[in-house]
Write a structure and sequence with these properties.
single chain, alpha+beta, Protein Transport Mog1p, Chain A, 5-stranded antiparallel β-sheet, 14% strand
Length: 464
């Protein structure tokens, strides 16, 4: 599902508010409070949505410089209908066995609690927060009728975001981009950042143009942002893993702007260069969240930083043993590494997540590559239902010895996986052993020192 959660929307609006009030471009519209407008009858709302969406679609085309190849189906649905629809899309997004493996990995890694259910928690977030969404599979845009109707200018902002998704879908095939089972946690974030970053960038420019023209006042926007952030505060209590969905909006927009921060968007005359960047990135996908977080590591050929690829077959020879086998392989990447290298009890504030730098830290910077191996001593469908009998080995590679050492120190002070031990290996590797006793760790390290461990970077052999 490609959609706009209200908490993420509030975060982007807050960033927009800061940009609009700080920007020297144009004149600030008169400050005033828009009088409340009575909500029309339900029978008329679908027709109003169609007219409003058609109007915004023309503005989206003008900003992006692309034309819709076909009309977009539009629906206004109830909260209960949205709840059922979101559940259907979440369950259809990947196969249940893959979802079970990912959930087990996240539990073992300490990214979610051992009793956290991915689907139910995601439903809780989206059920409370979703305002509108575009579904690539059915090519349908839906706005949710909630008890607290949104101001018209807010609906236009949401429509500009979701119609950008619809437009992008007709040029880059969002359904194919968002396929999860062929990737990893790291590459899934890349795909989400491209999709959400594209739509967010256009929405920010749309808002900037509307503010300059006097369509809405900064006072109205400020009040709405305050209200939305109050609703979103409950999300600050969720496991930080779920905050990554919000990071994709801010970080993805900055990546496509090639400027490192959202302020770069307001210097652009339109959204055409963002569309060109999306086409380029879709043709040659960024290969890590590191490249999304540090745009120059993708866009600048002289600074291009490809991830270190760890050979899964060699790892299987190292880790497999009678009675234990690898049940899942994944890559966490810099963004999730940053979550693990921050203390679990560190205060979280949605208002401070508007900067790209807020999504990484010194313990995660210098990430070169990683691979997480989830192992089980049990077989059958019950093996992944709890963390009992599960073990993990997280192999991390770093650009420099100093980067590796900073990671080891930060993980120890941050949020290391439960029952884990981190062991430096060689000059630039660190291995995190989870639920593996000291004798076995030492045996594995001895074997690792004599076992060839093929690694490549950019197609070339990488040696630490």
């Amino acid at each position: 599902m490609t959609g706009l959660a209200r908490a993420a929307y509030a975060l982007v609006l807050l960033a927009s508010l800061g940009l609009l009030t700080a920007s020297p471009v144009g004149q600030t519209a008169p400050v005033g409070q828009t009088a409340p407008v009575a909500s029309p009858p339900a029978s008329a709302r679908a027709e109003i949505l169609g007219r409003l969406a058609d109007d915004v679609a023309r503005e989206v085309e003008q900003l992006r410089g692309w034309k819709f190849k076909r009309p977009v189906k539009k629906e206004r649905i109830s909260v209960s209908q949205a709840r059922q629809d979101i559940r259907r899309m979440l369950l259809a997004s990947d196969k249940s066995d893959h979802r079970a493996r990912v959930q087990a990995l996240l539990r073992v890694a300490g990214l979610i609690p051992s009793d956290c259910d991915l689907v139910s928690t995601s439903l809780t977030v989206l059920d409370q927060q979703v305002a509108g969404y575009y579904e690539p599979a059915t090519r349908t845009l839906r706005l949710v009728d909630r008890p607290d109707p949104m101001p018209t200018f807010v609906e236009r902002m949401i429509l500009s975001h979701e119609l950008t998704h619809a437009l992008d879908d007709q040029y880059v095939d969002l359904a194919d981009l968002m396929k999860t089972e062929r990737g990893s946690e790291d590459t899934d974030f890349v795909a989400t950042a491209l999709a959400e970053g594209s739509a967010t960038s256009l929405m920010l420019q749309y808002m900037f143009a509307a503010q300059k023209s006097g369509t809405f006042s900064l006072a109205d926007l400020s009040q709405y942002v305050t209200d939305e952030l109050a609703r979103a505060r409950t999300l600050e209590q969720l496991p930080r893993y779920f905050s990554a969905m919000f990071g994709s909006y801010v970080v993805g927009a900055a990546f496509l702007a090639k400027g490192g921060e959202l302020t770069a968007l307001l210097t652009l005359p339109d959204n055409r260069s963002i569309g060109e960047a999306l086409l380029t990135a879709r043709h040659a996908l960024p290969r890590s969240s590191e490249q999304i977080l540090h745009a120059e590591k993708y866009w600048d050929p002289a600074r291009r930083d490809e991830p270190i690829v760890i050979d899964d077959r060699a790892m299987s020879l190292w880790l497999d043993r009678p009675g234990r086998h690898i049940v899942h392989r994944n890559t966490l990447g810099e963004l999730l590494t940053a979550i693990l290298t921050e203390p679990r009890d560190a205060p979280r504030d949605l208002t401070k997540l508007q900067s790209v730098g807020a999504w990484t830290n010194a313990g995660a910077a210098g990430w070169g590559g990683d691979r997480f191996y989830l192992m089980s001593n049990r077989a059958g469908p019950d093996a992944l239902r709890t963390t009992k009998g599960l073990q993990g080995v997280w192999v991390t590679a770093w650009d420099t010895p100093r980067d590796r050492d900073e990671f080891v120190a930060a993980l120890q002070k941050g949020s290391p996986p439960p029952d884990s031990a981190t062991v430096p290996v060689g000059r630039q590797l660190a291995v995190v052993f989870i639920a593996i006793d000291q004798d076995e760790r030492e045996s594995l390290i001895r074997r690792l020192n004599i076992l060839p461990l093929p690694m490549t970077r950019g197609g070339q052999v990488w040696r630490q």
